[in-house]
Amino acid sequence: MDMKELLYEGKAKELYETDDPDTLWVKYKNQATAGNGAKKETIEGKGKLNNQITSLLFEKLKEKGIPSHFIKQLSETEQLIQKVEMFPLEVVVRNVAAGSFSRRLGVEEGKELSFPVLEFYLKKDELNDPIINEDHVKELALAAEGEVVKIKNQALEINQVLLKLFKEMNIRLVDFKLEFGKTSDGSIVLADEISPDTCRLWDLDTNDRLDKDVFRKDLGDIIPLYQEVLTRLNQL
Ligand code: ADP
Ligand code: UDP
């Protein structure tokens, strides 16, 4: 497989075309951003940690029968993925109150939620990715009604698998963001990444943060934390 033209450069990854029209070559970058790019830094080593963590998690999900775009890890910072038509949605699943949920609704950070709360956000940087509901998804034709049902079911199933996995790593899976896409045959698969950039991960014993909140809030170096997540994942 050969790498061809750069198709898209985002905040955290570069997507390249390959000689197969259905396959993309992804490079994970060392750039870290927060607040929709308002805070931006290069952090040596972040790309390879997120690539390895995402690759391992997508492999674990596959073992549990959850389809994704992931084909294989190519190098420390690169993956091959199936090209899909992305839904312009960020699907957030929350098990514990934190972040914008706590801020918007006045719920104490760390409160266990009585059921997994699912939220949709419109993926549109110019609008700062606003929270939307299912009527908005329908009105803006972001996904068909049947697709929304499938996306929600998959997101909740992924949550169950990840909750168990992170518990085995002595980590509390507080919340996370997923993105989904549609393959050329119309099936819906998990895409993008699952990493400490896109999840809130708290150590079960100490409540120490092992995720991007440490960068967002200027609390220290994220590299040893992301490395700790990878080490625990490798020990499973
Ligand atoms: P952003 O676009 O938010 O800055 P990234 O730097 O992570 O984020 O860029 C990756 C981009 O690739 C995202 O826009 C994401 O929606 C898109 N993407 C992820 N997986 C796939 C896929 N399998 N096929 C096509 N696009 C994808
Ligand atoms: N998240 C993400 N990308 C985004 C927004 C959120 O990966 O563009 C993740 C974030 O890491 C957290 C979850 O989604 O695990 C919920 O984020 P929240 O809405 O609380 O975001 P905040 O505004 O606090 O960053």
Automatic annotation (TrEMBL):
<dbReference type="GO" id="GO:0004639">
    <property type="term" value="F:phosphoribosylaminoimidazolesuccinocarboxamide synthase activity"/>
</dbReference>
<keyword id="KW-0067">ATP-binding</keyword>
<dbReference type="InterPro" id="IPR050089">
    <property type="entry name" value="SAICAR_synthetase"/>
</dbReference>
<keyword id="KW-0658">Purine biosynthesis</keyword>
<dbReference type="GO" id="GO:0009236">
    <property type="term" value="P:cobalamin biosynthetic process"/>
</dbReference>
<keyword id="KW-0436">Ligase</keyword>
<feature type="domain" description="SAICAR synthetase/ADE2 N-terminal">
    <location>
        <begin position="6"/>
        <end position="232"/>
    </location>
</feature>
<comment type="similarity">
    <text>Belongs to the SAICAR synthetase family.</text>
</comment>
<dbReference type="GO" id="GO:0005524">
    <property type="term" value="F:ATP binding"/>
</dbReference>
<keyword id="KW-0547">Nucleotide-binding</keyword>
<dbReference type="InterPro" id="IPR001636">
    <property type="entry name" value="SAICAR_synth"/>
</dbReference>
<dbReference type="GO" id="GO:0006189">
    <property type="term" value="P:'de novo' IMP biosynthetic process"/>
</dbReference>
<dbReference type="InterPro" id="IPR033934">
    <property type="entry name" value="SAICAR_synt_PurC"/>
</dbReference>
<dbReference type="Pfam" id="PF01259">
    <property type="entry name" value="SAICAR_synt"/>
</dbReference>
<protein>
    <recommendedName>
        <fullName>Phosphoribosylaminoimidazole-succinocarboxamide synthase</fullName>
        <ecNumber>6.3.2.6</ecNumber>
    </recommendedName>
</protein>
<comment type="pathway">
    <text>Purine metabolism; IMP biosynthesis via de novo pathway; 5-amino-1-(5-phospho-D-ribosyl)imidazole-4-carboxamide from 5-amino-1-(5-phospho-D-ribosyl)imidazole-4-carboxylate: step 1/2.</text>
</comment>
<dbReference type="InterPro" id="IPR028923">
    <property type="entry name" value="SAICAR_synt/ADE2_N"/>
</dbReference>
<dbReference type="InterPro" id="IPR018236">
    <property type="entry name" value="SAICAR_synthetase_CS"/>
</dbReference>
